[in-house]
Specification:
6 strands, six-stranded antiparallel beta sheet, elongated, alpha+beta, 2 domains
């Protein structure tokens, strides 16, 4: 039995990898096109795009793995049926329950991985991706160009002269007016420092002037730092539980909890349907497995998305139990009763 189990798992794994690689590549291209739209708003390097892609990998896996397992499991058993290997197994007295138990082990492992991916990894990468984009958008506000007027640095009006080879600027002027007092700062050189969300303007060798109707003062300096914090909306993240319990975007989180929980358990609850549509007698039956695969996926995914509008969180037990009952009845009539 161990050899037979390994033989089925080997066939399943080979087909699973080939289908998964194709689906994952297509999904990656779609997400990369979506990520490319951010370049219209912010400047992203190759490394920045790579980090954003890494952040969406848990989401890519979640949408490709359940479909891949369902399709590959059905096609694996169907291919064994077409080669009459399944019929031979039944003729030797092996019950269809054995095939069901064999497929149940990888299905349980995959469902556990999907649940961990959804409840733990997804919140972490989602917050990291959102904060990264927010940070880059805020940083883009400070893409300063030399020899141009109209720049602002916090409350200061800023003019930068030529940009030097060491990333410093020459002939820098800052102006600020507070009430009746006006402040003008002139510096020979300046350098912009980005330190984890705090933008610092380091002025080197300059003079500062403060004047009003009552007084005039001057100060000379060798080094001066002017700070300005990015106005970025960063999401605070502690644990996955805090993420799911927070009220921020509550309706969308509820939608995801219901839909993605049902998709996570799909590899397990879909096994009865897998055997029902894939176990056939090649000589006496015409299989419509691809049609049944499409109808099965459409029905389950459609139920998971559509019924939650009416049943909220009760959608999870309603869809899962109803699906199991219906597919078990089909399994009993099409497989157990005949083989």
């Amino acid at each position: 039995m161990n050899r037979l189990e390994k033989y089925i798992i080997h066939n399943l794994s080979m087909l699973f990898l080939s289908i998964f690689s194709a689906l994952f590549a297509i999904a990656s291209i779609i997400f990369l096109i979506k990520l490319a739209t951010y370049t219209a708003v912010i400047q992203l390097s190759i490394w920045d795009m790579t980090k954003l892609y890494i952040f969406v990998i848990p989401e890519l896996l979640f949408f490709t793995l359940p479909i891949t397992f369902f399709v590959s499991a059905a096609l694996t058993i169907f291919r064994l049926s077409n080669d009459n290997e399944i019929v031979v197994l039944f003729a030797l007295g092996i019950h269809p329950k054995f095939i069901l138990k064999t497929l149940l082990k990888p299905a349980l492992l995959l469902s556990a991985l999907l649940l961990f991916n959804f409840f733990v990894l997804f919140p972490h990468t989602k917050v990291m991706s959102k904060n990264f984009i927010s940070f880059k958008k805020s940083e883009a506000k400070f893409n300063l160009a030399a020899s141009e007027f109209g720049h602002k640095f916090g409350d200061w009006l800023l003019y930068l002269g030529e940009k030097n080879s060491d990333d410093t600027y020459s002939n820098v002027f800052l102006f600020n007016k507070k009430g009746n007092e006006e402040i003008l700062i002139e510096s020979d050189r300046a350098k912009i420092i980005n330190d984890s969300g705090i933008l610092r303007l380091k002025l080197i060798d300059g003079e500062g002037y403060s004047y009003s109707k009552e007084k005039f003062s001057q100060v000379n300096f060798e080094n001066m730092l002017i700070n300005d914090t990015f106005d970025s909306e960063l999401t605070e993240y502690k644990t996955a539980i805090d993420y799911w319990q927070s009220d921020e975007r509550r309706s969308k989180k509820d939608y995801m909890l219901i839909t993605d929980t049902l998709l996570s358990i799909f590899p397990v609850v879909g096994l009865f349907l897998v055997l029902s549509i894939s176990i056939v007698h090649a000589r006496h039956q015409k299989s419509k497995i691809y049609l049944f695969l499409f109808i099965g996926l459409l029905t389950y995914y459609g139920s998971a998305i559509g019924l939650q509008k009416f049943f909220a969180f009760y959608t999870i037990p309603i869809v899962a139990l109803t699906w199991l009952i219906i597919t078990y009845i089909i399994y009993k009539k099409t497989v157990v009763a005949r083989f």
